[in-house]
């Protein structure tokens, strides 16, 4: 059985494009519709009620485009709104947190795991709670790292200022002797080379974007929802506002030239 309907993906901004890139690489025949809520970012400093309301409006938009499932490629929305979205949406809704947790649990040998993410994601405790529910013996070191997103969006990926900030943020991880670090923000995969160099060999970086894409593939496998194998994949980019230099920034996240986005207006849910 095949299903040629698109997959809907959303984030508060451009970070979720790392999930889009991972989906394009893993599922090249699928059509994707991406919505970046660039008019209202960031979500990380907003209340759970506001994040849930925004997420409902986005899911309403994506389902109006006929998607077969929705991927919440936003750690904050996954932490705060996922269960509500699942209860209210006719198509399956997959988040980014559970796949990252499962990948971390599979990777750690010592049981010492680090997590870095936005203030909202780390403050929600979603990663920590889900990990401890499955492995109560884990030693978890979680740290909010709010300076990283602006550094990434400035394209300072290989800059001494970024390395200096990372060294400061990683101090508790080094002290705790972690063997696995969860990148609990979809921007952070762009920092994997810098993080690997600073942490040294023997440390596993869990890329939440890759883990999320793998979970989408498993869902399609289980439910027979893959697009036909001769279909040509395509990605439609939709934004609620057009930031300066969007196409340059999107190209870095997608690792390919980005098409011109469609500006959309979301309706109250």
How does this model look, in words?
The strands form two sheets. A six-stranded parallel sheet has the order 4-3-1-2-9-10, with helices on both faces. With 269 residues, it is α/β, with parallel strands linked by helices. Helix 11 (246-254) links the parallel strand 9 and strand 10. It has eleven helices and ten strands. Helix 4 crosses helix 6 (126-134) and helix 4 packs across helix 10. It folds into two domains: 7-96 and 210-263, 3-Layer(aba) Sandwich (Rossmann fold); 97-208, Rossmann fold, CATH 3.40.50.1860. The protein is globular.
**Mean of residue pLDDT values:** 95
Poorly predicted regions: none
Structural class: alpha/beta
According to CATH, the fold-level topology of the largest domain is Rossmann fold
Radius of gyration over C-alpha positions, nearest whole angstrom: 18 Å
Summarize, please.
The chain is an alpha/beta fold and 269 residues long. The protein is 46% helix and 17% strand.
List the helices and strands and how they pair.
Layout (H helix, E strand, L loop, with lengths): L6 E5 L5 H10 L4 E6 L11 H17 L4 E4 L2 H14 L4 E2 L2 H11 L4 E6 L1 H6 L1 H9 L4 E6 L3 H6 L6 H17 L3 E5 L7 H8 L4 E4 H16 L10 E6 L6 H9 L7 E2 L6
Parallel strand pairs: 1-2, 1-3, 2-9, 3-4, 5-6, 5-7, 7-8, 9-10
What keyword list fits this structure?
Rossmann fold, alpha/beta, 2 domains, four-stranded parallel β-sheet, 46% helix, 269 residues, 17% strand, 10 strands, six-stranded parallel β-sheet, globular
């Amino acid at each position: 059985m095949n299903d040629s309907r698109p997959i809907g993906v959303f984030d508060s901004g451009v970070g979720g494009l790392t999930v889009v890139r991972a989906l394009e690489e893993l599922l090249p025949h699928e059509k994707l519709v991406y919505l970046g809520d660039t008019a209202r970012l960031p979500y990380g400093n907003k209340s759970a009620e506001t994040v849930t309301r925004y997420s409902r409006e986005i899911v309403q938009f994506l389902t109006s485009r006929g998607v077969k499932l929705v991927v919440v490629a936003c750690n904050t929305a996954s932490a705060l709104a996922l269960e509500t979205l699942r209860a209210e949406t006719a198509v399956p809704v997959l988040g980014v947190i559970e796949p990252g947790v499962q990948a971390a649990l599979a990777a750690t040998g010592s049981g010492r795991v680090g997590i870095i993410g936005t203030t909202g994601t780390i403050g929600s405790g979603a990663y920590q709670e889900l990990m401890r529910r499955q492995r109560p013996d884990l030693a978890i070191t979680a740290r909010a790292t709010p300076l990283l997103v602006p550094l990434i969006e400035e394209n300072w990926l290989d800059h001494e200022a970024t390395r200096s900030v990372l060294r400061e943020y990683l101090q508790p991880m080094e002290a705790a002797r972690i063997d696995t670090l969860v990148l609990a923000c979809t921007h952070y995969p762009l920092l994997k080379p810098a993080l690997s160099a600073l942490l040294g060999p023997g440390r596993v970086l869990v890329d939440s974007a890759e883990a999320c894409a793998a979970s989408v593939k498993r869902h399609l496998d289980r439910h027979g929802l893959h697009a036909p194998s001769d279909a040509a994949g395509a990605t439609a980019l939709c934004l609620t506002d057009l930031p300066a230099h969007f196409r340059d920034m999107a190209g870095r996240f997608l690792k390919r030239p980005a098409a011109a986005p469609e500006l959309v207006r979301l309706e109250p849910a």
